[in-house]
Amino acid sequence: MDILSLLLVFPVITALGILVAKKDKVVRWTALSGSIVQLFLAIGITAYYVSLRNAGETGQMLLESSYEWFAPLQIYFSAAVDGISLVMILMTAMVVVAGILVSWKIGKQVKEFFFLILLLSLSAYGFFISTNLFVMFFFLELAVIPKYLLIGVWGSGRKDYSAMKLALMLMFGSALVFIGILGLFYFTGAQTWDFQEIAKMHIPIETQRILYILLFTGFGVFTAMFPFHTWAPDGHSSAPTAASMFLAGISMKLGGYGCLRVATYLLPDAAQELSWIFIITASIAIIYGAFATMMQKDLKYMNAYSSVSHCGFVILGIAMLTKAAVTGAVMQMVSHGIMTALFFASIGMIYDRAHTRQADELGGMLKQMPFIGSAFIISGLCSLGLPGFSGFVSEMTVFVGSWERTGVFYRVATILACASIVVTAVYILRAVGFAIWGTVTNKEYLKFKDATWSERSAAVLLTLGILIIGLAPFLFIHLIDADTTSIVSRFIAVVGK
Amino acid sequence: MNSYDLSALLIVILPALSFLVLGLFGNRLSNRVSGLIGCASLVTTAILAIYVAAGYFFDFGLVGGVHEKHIALQFQWLKFTENLSIDLGIVLDPISVMMLLVITIVSSMVHIYSLGYMKGEEYFERYYAYLSLFSFSMLGLVIAVNIFQMYIFWELVGVSSFLLIGFYFTKPSAIAAAKKAFIVTRFADLGFLIGILMLSYNTKSLDFFTIIERLTQVGSPYLANFTATSFMGMSALSWALLLVFMGGAGKSAMFPLHIWLPDAMEGPTPVSALIHAATMVVAGVFLVARLFPVFAISAPDALLIIAYIGAFTALFAALIACTQTDIKRVLAYSTISQIAYMMFGLGVAGWGAENSEGFTGSMFHLFTHAFFKALLFLGAGAVIHAVHSNEMKDMGGLRKSLPITHITFLIACLAIAGVPGLSGFFSKEAILAAAFHSHPTIFYVGLFTSGLTAYYMFRLYFRIFWHNPVPEHSHNHEGHTWAMNIPLIILAVGAALAGWIPFGSFVSADGKAMELPFHLTFSIAPVAFGLIGIGIAYLLYAKKNDVPDKIASSINAFYKASYNKFYIDEIYLFITKKVLFNLVGRPAAWFDRTVVNGLFINGSAEATVATSRAIKPMQSGRLQSYTMFFLGGVLLLAALLIIKFM
Predict the structure, then answer these.
(1) Which residues pair with A281 in a beta bridge?
(2) What is the DSSP letter of B67?
(3) What does the entry list under GO cellular component (chain A) (predicted)?
């Protein structure tokens, strides 16, 4: 048994364990211990990967393995990782543990809930380790169904509408992706789904153009790219806390990863020619998303719109095609994944107690619940790009990378993106001022208890993640440096440098 | 790593450690222990800073009679590209060492003072944690080797200021002030960030000293490229530097970005003394000083703009200070005005030994101002502590009940008014002399402002300590302890004597010792203006009388404008509330819900439903209609075939 398959085997075992468990308590502990084992496994694989690299392994992706699934159609379950997929896996493992911890008090259909969470995490792991486009697509699709159920069954508010909207929009995205990968399969002449093989092919530019637009847009829907972002605010606001964390933390990153690894990496010529389209959509998403966020009163809507704005940095970094920008995009994916999970977790903790998420109906949370209030402030400060937290290093890397592109168009896009840091500060501080600082407005709130042990552990875990990247970005860069270099080496001709 | 380098490193690390300890475990420690941890770490850094400063100025920094820069530590933290990386490190050069002294001394005084001032306050340990965080960030800022390192600590300084202004976080006015401070400076930092991007792109470096070298050497290709493009009559380099200065103007509260500072007085008074008087607000001056060679050699046009902004702000803020009635606000506007002095001091300076006295004067004023302004704030804190009010109308005749506060406050007032012999006299003189030599207009503005300064400071002094006692406060005695008095006394010694330091032999633009020129004849005008200001203040405020009110009503329009801070806040409020929120934010949110989501997404969903409704009747289940469709289809095909093959 090879080591990467373990990443899929553990969630399956955990999910099966959940199915056979009788008591809710056993279900919770099984889910938690399974996900913690998974986190350590991810750390272990990363350590092993680093040791291989240090030993001089130069292959583009390591730890390769391949199993036949449906040979006549060239569908193999092939897995391999590089630094980029590893950081995504680490981030996923962290968010899963935290998500399970904050869902500790879920009372309804516990078994089904945790089963779906595990299934969702399984599909994310599968997506990040696959090198076969078909299997990748399979996992991408697999991730949609649990989201639909999680929102539809455990959600709140207009959950039916939101769940349906989310599922349909994501399905629309994956339809585009599917046409795109079919195109890669047939028109490249390679008749293979393996993206490392396809990368070696010379694909005619006419084909590339069509496929690039299809694939980038398709994956872009998952990243809530403007104008396909509207599933995010509704979906997030209706989803239960853990599902919001997964949606914003993990699912949106499936899209970003796909934009980078499939659309941009495999179709470099089209990317050079057409990435300006996505620079425009990303700039709009960043600044317009930020302004739209400013007007939100519901904390979850606020964070959802803010995610649209922040994921704009991911798209912008990928579309700018310089090494620093792409590195920044990868960092931003991980950083936003953890940060937004913490944000949703703390909003969820407040909502569980107050049963409202309207900023102006809250107030005095810091005084009443110092821990939860502080967690909210920390995620807010990370969101507005405070140095020391992960948001700063990733945003700055995107900015510096984007500035490498000369020309008025790129400069304007970069300046717009930079300008969003001011708007971000406005909405974050407004939320902190209304909901967290101030005095308790409602007598009911005086009865609130601060975070439980599980909520505390979740917040501490995610804060650690934010801090590690924010304080020691060199570790992160070290892990992905070679991979971003090899990706951007495909664009050197146009971008220069 | 020698002992100096190690000490320099410890200076930065100790406050960080104390922040960590107090932040993580503070709620388990008693107030006493938390306070002691904070004070011990800061007093230690102050001692280390004195040690490093002595070493730098007299020993290892002095190479052949010139103060050379010394990199004590440097490592790569975040690599962007082959050339661009954020390096963290410690540079010791005249201005950074001078700043280390100022920050650690004032900060340790404020730490000690707070033991008394904040006694019994809720969240005492959190207060000390934030103070330590601030000290750490400010120290990291001044020792930055890399422009991005400075930006990092710049932001950290901003957030610790935010947290401290909002320390009384249940008070709406404190929340608003904290938000305002952060957002205004954030807006300014946007300029700083874009300036950094421009500088780094054009010099292929983020390292301060590489940037300076590449932009000042004659014939440098980087310089030639950078100045080749111009926009509105100024080179790209000048624009980049002005953008960087925008960040500095935000932190240093230059017009029109000054609006956050008076509101920042919502924070505890010792915080105002440390952050909003002595240290953080001079960060902008420090930034310009750090890049001074580039300004002076390659972008004198940008430097001139700074000089004019500085001169205008100095006068503008002094005018407002004359009419404010909240004593902390008077001090806040006075701070703005004094920092503006430093700013135009830099602005009027040029490169070369004979032109750069403005630079040294500005740094000198920064140094002396830290002492007397911190002292003024701490004194004001003691007054507020005694009368429980910020308003002048609740004060009067306090010289008997608060003797130590009275004497130290008087020393500080004399120093800031530029009375000969006290510290402010020497430094202000140097700036005015520099201005007189290069930009007479600015000199006259500065001269007039110095008269105003003396007037409003002594208005404050006479109003608090003389005037008619307010009955309910006549029995207040100096209830505060040694913890509050000792810092007052130490700072008063500094405020009185700091001017006698031969500052030019330590700090100069090029590291060579210089003599600050001193002409007795030149001093006559500023001193006379100062004394006239004091005299008018004495006549109007030493005793209760109705002259001030009469004067106020005779110049009513002007008085009101000044009292209302020339309505700058209202203009901002209009722009943010009316324009940004109502004309940008609201339409964006509306557009998203109605057009993107409503028309585009829900619209396509509804279109799908409508289409399916429309074609649903075809699936009626009736055999007859299916037969009809079938026959119709056959006929159509037949018709097509016939047309095709006929």
Answers:
(1) none
(2) E
(3) endomembrane system; membrane
Is pLDDT above 80 for B556? Answer: no
Identity at B435, one-letter amino acid code = A
Are the Cβ atoms of A288 and B193 closer than 8 angstroms? Answer: no
CA of A323 vs chain B CAs: smallest distance (Å): 7
Using an 8 Å CB-CB cutoff, list chain B residues near A329. none
The token pair that represents A465 in the structure block:
């993640």
- pLDDT value for B476: 54
Interchain CB distance below 8 Å, B77 and A294? no
pLDDT in tens, A246-283: 888 888 899 999 999 999 998 888 888 888 999 999 99
pLDDT digits (tens, 9 = 90+) for B170-194: 888 888 888 888 988 999 999 999 9
- Residue whose entry in the numeric block shows the structure tokens 């293979």: A192
Residue environment code for A207-221, b if the CB has 16+ CB neighbours within 10 A, otherwise e: bbeebbbbbbbbbbb
Question: In a mutagenesis test of the B interface, which of A322, A400, A467 is the best target, namely the one with the most B β-carbons within 10 Å?
Answer: A400
pLDDT of residue B465: 83
Q: What is the pTM of this model?
A: 0.90
Interface probe, candidates B169, B200, B225, B257, chain A, greatest A C-beta count within 10 A: B169
* B287 touches B419 (CB < 8 A): no
Q: Containing H/E element for A65?
A: strand A62-70
Whether the CA torsion B421, B425, B431, B436 is positive or negative: it is negative
A404 CB within 8 Å of a chain B CB: yes
How do residues B303-317 score in pLDDT, each as one tens digit? 999 999 999 999 989
Residue B354: Cβ-neighbour burial (10 angstroms; 0-12, 13-18, 19+): exposed
Give the whole-angstrom CA distance, residue A476 versus residue B33.
Answer: 38
pLDDT computed for residue B477 by the predictor:
53
Q: Is the pLDDT of residue B277 over 90?
A: no
**How confident is the model over B222-261, as pLDDT tens digits?**
888 888 787 887 888 899 999 999 999 999 989 888 888 8
Q: Give the model confidence (pLDDT) of B426-454 as tens digits.
A: 888 888 888 888 888 888 998 889 888 98
User: Based on the number of CB atoms within 10 Å of its own CB, is A71 exposed (0-12), middle (13-18) or buried (19 or more)?
Assistant: exposed
What amino acid occupies position A231? W
Strand pairing class (B70-79; A62-70):
unpaired
DSSP, residue by residue, A91-102:
HHHHHHHHHHHH
- How far, in Å, CA of B279 to CA of B134, rounded? 10
Domain borders along chain A are: 6-488
- Please tell me the predicted confidence (pLDDT) of residue A497: 39
Q: Interface pTM (ipTM) of the complex?
A: 0.90
What tokens appear for A134 in the block? 């078909």
User: Cβ A421–B78 below 8 Å, yes or no?
Assistant: no
Would you call B603 an interface residue with chain A, using a CB distance cutoff of 8 Å?
no
Asked if B102 and B367 touch (Cβ cutoff 8 Å), the reply is yes
CB B56 within 8 A of CB B67: yes
Contact indicator for A275, A247 with CB cutoff of 8 Å: no
Is pLDDT at A394 greater than 60 in this prediction? yes
